[in-house]
Amino acid sequence: xxxxxxxxxxxxxxxFVTPCSVNANSIIGRVIDSEGNNINALKKELIEExxxxxxxxxxxxKYISSANINKKVLELSNHQPELTKTYAQYMNMMLTKxxxxxxxxxxxxxxxxxxxxxxxxxxxxQYIIAFWGMETNFGSYQGNFDVVDALFSLIYANKRPxxxxxxxxxxxxxxxxxxxxxxxxxxxxxGAMGNFQFMPSTYLRYAVDYDKDGKKDIWNSFPDAAAxxxxxxxxxxxxxxxxxxxxxxxxxxxxxxxxxxSVKKPLSYWRKKGVMDSxxxxxxxxxxxxxxxxxxxxxxxxxIVYSNYKxxxxxxxxILYSLAVGNLADLIVSRTSVKAKKTQEKGFxxxxxxxxxSKLNQVGLGTMEVDGVYGGSTRDxxxxxxxxxxxxxxxxxxxxxxxxxxxxxxxxxxxxxxxxKKPKK
Length: 425
Ligand SMILES: [Ca+2]
Prior knowledge:
about 50% helix, binds calcium ion, about 425 residues, mainly alpha, single chain
């Protein structure tokens, strides 16, 4: 066992038997006593490593030696939600009337600046506002953690330590170059900073001093923050000519095995398959490529997504987050409203996904790792069993599907498959 992990367990155990009035420093004191200077050893190691990564010695010593373990960061990094949100729950939570109205107001308020940014960085204004709303509710929840302490605590807790080390070293370099004082660089518990929640390495590479006051201040200057976000988006491949995607409808006999982020086809191809926009018009006959995704299975809302959707996913690797950013951007400029269609009562827990995975392995449809992560190989195995049973191959384990899967055996199946019939109007 890694020595830091061992001491981390000790801290956690200790937290539960410690009265709330004890502050973090005395907790550290106890850990050092019982574990033999673990924290100091880690600090020493980090200061040496930082210098190898071209961080100045004085800077590394100054910030790392005074870093504190923040027990709130340790608690939050251990918290795992029991159930994930369903698509409909997430969208309706994120895209409230209030947020949409506020987004529209701020879009108009900052329109001149946003248009200037669009000329320079080639990102349409509504996307900047949409990211701002999703990341920090337009700057109102930026996080109030000391960023050095947050990153140090996460390294100490052995939560992706290589990743957070890189972020810590980037932060130290940024402190040297940005003109912003470290005490003003607040972050979320996970080290994300400012109006658009930049990790330090993103800040180091992409932050911009747009208002030209000598500071790259993504916390307090909206021009700096928005230009930094636009600079980042354009650097990771934003396409100024395109939108992100759109909601679609498909004909009753659509082959859902093709609805997958990896199946990119020209719009002309989807048009031939009868795919229509949400107003009931066939997609345009264009070579532009898109993939069809089904966030809540074939009964739920359906989208076609383009290359900018992938850019949103690179910002934050989450399907639901990306759909919310895209929809919010559209709502800002379209004056319509959105109501996500609900087909599921509950999201998935890791345990449910593990059950699905081991069942699929058991009946010979997969050899996947039972890790509780609903990824590509699980989706493929779900599609295989759906194909065998003549169910729509959407790869989505709806509650009903899971219930049936429970009763399935490889020899008998569970009920005679029925071909799909055109529904009566
Ligand atoms: Ca500035």
